[in-house]
Amino acid sequence: MLIDGHGRKVDYLRISLTERCNFRCQYCMPEKPFSWQPKENLLSFDELFLFVKVAIDGGVTKIRLTGGEPLLREDLDKFIKMIYDYKPDIDLALTTNGFLLPQVALQLKEAGLSRLNISLDSLDESVAHKIAQKAVLPNVLKGIDMALKVGLGVKINMVPLKGINDNEIVDILDFAREKGIKVRFIEYMENHHADKNIEGMHGREILSKIKEKYTIKALGREGASPSFNYLIEENGYEFGLIDPHKHDFCENCNRIRLTAEGFLIPCLYFDEALSISKAVKSGDIAKASEILGEVLKNKPKENRWNDENNGKMHESSTRAFYVTGG
Ligand code: SAM
Ligand code: SF4
Q1: Residue among 120, 140, 2, 124 at smallest CA distance from 61
Q2: 323 CA to middle of ligand 2, Å?
């Protein structure tokens, strides 16, 4: 079992497969970064898999593949199959913007993927275009339908932004309910890479938009999930709210993150990271395992988006979401 320096059980590994993306979301990567990591710095699937085995053998039971946009990585289905064949009962999920899903959903399902989170920030073509800075909506909607058709579990992620898509919170909730899938509203997390002009919404503001139409009941956090669940009393639908600005968000944190270049990151907020690149490139399992232990030992207690942090509201992280995978 993997335990961090604060006694929390860590059983969830998120792997960012690439920092590259085919969208330019205003809250994540509004402009193409000055330079991409050269492709040769990326860990190959064989190298990533070596670490995946170390993590699974240590006690990781859930793996999420993310990015950047993970569907841009060639032969993704082969990597999914490698993990699935090693541990078929692993909870293997992927987070994607959905744009390329119509072409690959079936392949991913057949390789062993069980679940997907698809980002959907608007149901209005022009608003979706404004946020992603590309005409994306028709493909994303097709991607959602294709994922459902091939039998993948689907959840929707929405990041509400003031004056941009805040009037669509209920529309997206109703859309998800009608499709029989769960939506999770994610508070915008302030970071240095996002467009300076955007303003996120606090969880309580998101909830009050929903309360204009529905009566909601708080259900609580689902185990170690960062998502706090709510029930709509009128129709029994459950949705989630990911609210890192809330003080109890980090209490049960069970995750570590691996970037495409092999940096093992203990917390989305902080700069700390150790590289496993050299270890996995030389096939040194003992070293990779030692680095994992070190990262766990130094995992911070909590992020600094927390409202109660030194009385300060909404500090900004230097970490790019497209590098850490969100
Ligand atoms: N490209 C994929 C996608 O958009 O789903 C996967 C990577 S993306 C970094 C993972 C998740 O992080 C997405 O749901 C996205 O909406 C969310 N995200 C990105 N930047 C964020 C921010 N500043 N605050 C909150 N969520 C953010
Ligand atoms: Fe790309 Fe996802 Fe970031 Fe949007 S949120 S720019 S789709 S990595």
Answers
A1: 2
A2: 10
Report the b/e string of 117-131 with b at 16+ CB within 10 A: bbbbbbbeeebbebb
The Å distance, Cα 131 to ligand 2 centre, comes to 10
Residuewise pLDDT in 10s, the chain (326 residues): 899 888 899 999 999 999 999 999 999 999 888 778 888 889 999 999 999 999 999 999 999 999 999 999 999 999 999 999 999 999 999 999 999 999 999 999 999 999 999 999 999 999 999 999 999 999 999 999 999 999 999 999 999 999 999 999 999 999 999 999 999 999 999 888 899 999 999 999 999 999 999 999 999 987 778 899 999 999 999 999 998 887 677 888 889 999 999 999 988 777 788 999 999 999 999 999 999 999 999 888 887 776 655 444 567 777 788 888 78
116 φ/ψ angles, rounded to the nearest 5 degrees = -135, 145
Instruction: Determine whether the shortest distance from the Cβ of 97 to ligand 2 is under 6 A.
Output: yes
Atom of ligand 1 nearest to the CA of 158: 16
Question: Does the CB atom of residue 322 touch ligand 2 within 6 A?
Answer: yes
In Å, the largest CA–CA distance within the chain is 58
Specify the 3-state DSSP secondary structure of 142: helix
Which atom of ligand 2 is least distant from the CA of 97?
7
Identify the burial level of 9 via C-beta atoms within 10 angstroms of its C-beta, where 0-12 means exposed, 13-18 middle and 19 or more buried: middle
Which ligand is located closest to the Cα atom of residue 120? 1
Report the DSSP beta bridge partners of residue 10.
Answer: none
From the CA of 325, give the closest atom in ligand 1. 9
Output the six-digit token pair for 325. Answer: 């995978």
